[in-house]
């Protein structure tokens, strides 16, 4: 498709508003600078003008910012690095705009190529939802857990039982874990905070980035917002665990992979859990229907000795709104099939309404 200048400007302006709502004033500022450059058809416009996808759903601004951040992390943009807290910098509003545009002037080919890379964050903070959801799914079963994740990216949320979760009202996990996730928690604590026995953990992604490899770590870090240091630190801690545990993440579409995984025989006393977070919305409607059919078939085959559960952390049907009630954590277990809404909140786990 042909993308107009107006579409480019609007996509960057909209992303600036989202970044401001989601507590990244650094990116809000840089995107505002980018809007000015696009309107005047400057160097950033020259980098992105040939982008051939709808820039809003394709997250063009985040693709561009991810490429810039990779240059900073690799030490190839020292002037801009002085402003990026992710590498020890501190933003200077007087010079950050010109230094940001300067990166586009110095590395246009690299940044143009970076636009082909869709954002992948593998946000560890979502385990603040997924772990309580998993505990709720296993409650009262006494079963071992076979954990399957679609859209797993680097597999970091497959390691959720290795993390420390901390709120003002409850804690869970190893206090010495290199990953500590904190949240502003409203509501009572989860009903079930027992230990977990995860005997298998496996995921799939159309573009897997196993997090035990340095080049994949760079890619995943580059899509984190550089002024959100807590997210970066806990992701680095998750890399440490992933390097030791090495969760399997297969390259596959979700429907094909999940159909194969759910057709395998599992022992009695094993609960198979499907988890997914902020990925369903990116599937075409046809793919959603095919995947749902696979889930429905597994639900119909579930028994008390071989149950099946689904833990989902996704936007509400009308989409996520920063000033709204937030994302939705739902849990369903079969046999039975009752779906319960357990929590709503911030997409990165910063606040939770249980």
Q: What's the helical proportion of residues?
A: 25-40%
Number of strands: 12
Rg for CA atoms: 21 Å
Strand content: 15-25%
Class based on secondary structure composition and strand pairing: alpha/beta
Q: What does this protein structure show overall?
A:
The protein has 354 residues and is an alpha/beta fold. Helix content is 39%, strand content 18%. The chain has twelve helices and twelve strands. The strands form two sheets. Strands 5-12-11-10-9-8-1-6-7 form a nine-stranded mixed sheet, with helices on both faces. Strands 3-2-4 form a three-stranded mixed sheet, with no helix packed on it. The model has no long low-confidence stretch (mean pLDDT 94).
